[in-house]
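writing this on my phone so excuse typos. first protein, seq and then structure
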Amino acid sequence: MNFTRVAAVLALATALAPPAAAQTAPVTEPGTWSVTPFLSVTFGGDGDSASLGLGAAGAYDITAELGVEAELAYVFDLMGNADAADWSLLGVSANVLYHFPLENGMAPYATAGIGFGRSALTVGDADATSTEAGFNLGGGLKAPLTDALAARGDIRYFSYNDAAPDGWRVYGGLTWRPGR
């Protein structure tokens, strides 16, 4: 009976104890480079359905809060299952990220950027391409896994000036920090 009470008190104390400090480095450190390959889903806006995409971002943290990033992303087909039509988008952008570093090493962030989108629409035998300027706004979260790796989730809205498709993009990726 006494053993059961002691075990219950230890289990409760363990459950209520604050977690130990993370043993990994924070995901944002001044003067560090990072690379994030990602898998995305683009939806809403001008496209008829959700579409898969791939991309990569290279970033540099100027301070623990402020970073800059270049990104290249490709969306496969915004027309979905339409047999007679294909609509792809290749985007390149330059972004500013403002991180809100937390004590546990994680960093929520806000981001804004400008760039270009190359839209390619094929309907039957007709092709139409367009390259246009645009902007993006969004945010996300970086969470450390090891000193050199972090998980990253991001949501952004992309808007282009004319025929290229506007819409939302959600992505998940792994951030690698060389030299860590």
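second protein below, same order as before
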Amino acid sequence: MSAADVLTVVGATASVTEEFGCLTVDVPAADWLAAASALRDDQRATYTYFDWLSAYDDLDAGVAVVVRLWSPSKRRGVLLRTRVPHDDGVLPTLTGLWPGANWHERETLEMFGVRFEGHPNPIPLLLPDGFDAHPLRKDFMLASRVAKPWPGAKEPGESDRDLEPSAAPRRRRARPPGVPDPGSWGPAS
């Protein structure tokens, strides 16, 4: 199925791109359920298998919600994507179309804060009771990063401890396996 064919199935408000052999259909949030239904029910598409649903923080563009659908008869997949605002992201649930979306939507609610209107069981799935944040958003601050600096924030040998005069002596730097000593090869300087 070509990008033009998918566009006729989901409607004129969508945009379709193809990268690396995978079709991605971007729809407005208001058309989320209608586009998913069309991809499942239209005889030209037949994306009847729900593979997964997740989201990612797209910074200023909001939270992007992505569902991957598969057509077993035609052996091809499609990504359906929409964006919702960070503050009050709401989409209609896909559990009426694919019951397997239940767990994925619960996880997306907890991790990104996107609510799925009409979800049959939106109870917490992974986080402890009373956890009031969305840990996979980019604005989420890890408590351990506040308590101590992250060691990967600097290159090895550039930690704040190395600047103190009372710091312990450094160990000899080891070269990675297979890398010869710089003085033993190459042009002499």
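The chain is about 20% helix and 25% strand. thats all i got for now
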